[in-house]
Amino acid sequence: MASTETAHDQAGSVPPPPPAEITYTGEYSINPLGEASFGKLCAQIPTVLRRIVAMAWRIDRTAVALLLACPVLVGVAAAVLLAATARAMHPLLTDGTVTDRLHQAAPALVVVGIAAGLARIAGTVATYAERRITPRLTTETDTALVEAVCRVEASAHTVDGFSDRQEAAEMGVIRTHVMVTDAQRFLSALVKMVTASAAISVLNPLLLPLLLLAVLPAGVGAILTARVDYEIHYANVADRNVRGMMRWWSTTPKYGDEVRANSMTDYLVFWYRSLSERCDTRTLAAAPRTLRIGLLSSLAAGVFLVATWGALAWLAVTGRIALALAATAVVAVQTTLAALSQVIINGAALFHTSLYLTDMQAFLDDASARAPRRGASQVDTPVAEIRLEEAVYRYPGKDKPAVAGVSLTLRRGDILAVVGANGSGKSTLTRLITGIYLADKGRVTWNGMDLAEVDPQSVWRQTGLVPQIFAQWPLRVRENITLGQPRTHHDDPVWEAVDAVGLREAIQDLPTGLDTLLAREIFGGAELSGGQWQRIACSRALYRRPALLILDEPTSQMDPRGEHQVFERIKAIAADRITIVVTHRLENTRLADHIVVLEHGRITEQGRYDDLVHAGGLFAELLALSSDR
Ligand SMILES: Nc1ncnc2c1ncn2[C@@H]1O[C@H](COP(=O)(O)OP(=O)(O)OP(=O)(O)O)[C@@H](O)[C@H]1O
User: Which residues cross the membrane (predicted)?
Assistant: First the structure.
């Protein structure tokens, strides 16, 4: 064999290129919080708290009531504890035997114990309430996100950056795991801090401002650090999104053959690692900033803390404060410091959460704005006529339209075949006909009703689509066929759809027939061949008995017997519906009543098979090429 260059020669000689750097412009490319001021960001905390309470309230009112009551109890306990401590200090620090002093201080010490116990109980109950809320809150937000994405207009997915914003919103869902805990701890610490500060102010008004100054730098530092973290998170969103997708594509057994037999593993691992390292580089670049913030805030906090203790010592030494009160002040200072630190830590965590929740909320709002709003009219009767009038559709960011002014009329009983070169607009045309996309110009009508003004659900209830790339759901065989429209509690219609594509024998051979899980990677799951999967996709559409049946390359993976069977079935049921077949196998267009040939989104030829074969146009050329082997 006279091969000059083989795959083996090439291997290893050229280092693989790193993954492409993704930079995009447009409405989603701007960090929504990039321009917000520090004050504005801090002011979000009450809004976030309100939002968390409102979300939790919808889920479990009792638990929310407990969560709100517990901080109050903690505050009361802290106040009682400090007051009782002050009362206990006086006898403890006067003259007399230890027994006498303890005896006198005993009632106050018992109150101290009870108050401490109450605070503990309140903390435990709050944790219990938080555990009641968090799992369901996470499920709610997670499901809301999934539902929002499922319900948007399909065209939203073609907008640059939409999926990256979805990735950013996922972080909001992840933060719901901790946000109730953060909120609860923040509230408890806040109440405790207010109580302890009040006690300190009573003991000596000078101490409170000093204490505030001691913890404020930590607060500012924590918030600045959270902002840096968020900036990194934001800068990494696009890479993380691609990495997540590539992770699935690289590791799923579905594409394992291709990955192995084409020696892709090394490159994929290199690629995955490169993307991760790119994210790491951004994260590491921010480390000096966070170090500076940490060091400066700790320094400032240390200076003010020394000043606080110094002031307390000075007050005691100069007799400006009684010894017993000074001792109480030590406890109050410690309590306030601990509470203030908790306020700061949990406030910063809440602030951090608020950044991601804002992304999540912004995405949910955006998705909701992109949900279909086409009008409430319903297509009640089975579609008898579909008309396209100069329909045009252009994908966002593309110069030329994918469908560039198509006019067509389809009536019940018609079988239309759509042919044309790759990229000529065939699949896009089917999306316009089914109302998955709305025409930018011109219109598509069903029974005379403009799809732009019709509830899309009433349209999709009547459609059955076998797309070019169909889903292989990790569900049982039965659900893979009935998905979305279980009609009966018995399997007769399912078997009917299975027989229509000649799959009965293969399904009966599966370990548990229709109950077999079609996911090799799951325990007990089975796998089908490519052609068998395509038969499942066809039976899924046929099971629906739709008024509009669209098959986009429905038999590309089937053996001749399967293909023949499917087309026979299509012909047999054609009278009751409109049927559209998109295909590159031009022989299959013989069954059509009408064939349209698309070129660059326009119909350039149309007619019956016999007419087009002799017309000397693109159809005849493609047919000749397909038989020239
Ligand atoms: N989701 C999308 N976003 C942006 N452009 C798209 C999208 N889908 C298709 N296009 C573009 O629209 C044009 C028509 O694509 P379409 O999938 O309709 O062609 P087709 O005739 O079905 O091709 P094929 O025979 O390869 O299936 C192509 O230029 C394609 O790049």
Answer: 64-86, 106-129, 210-230, 293-315, 321-345
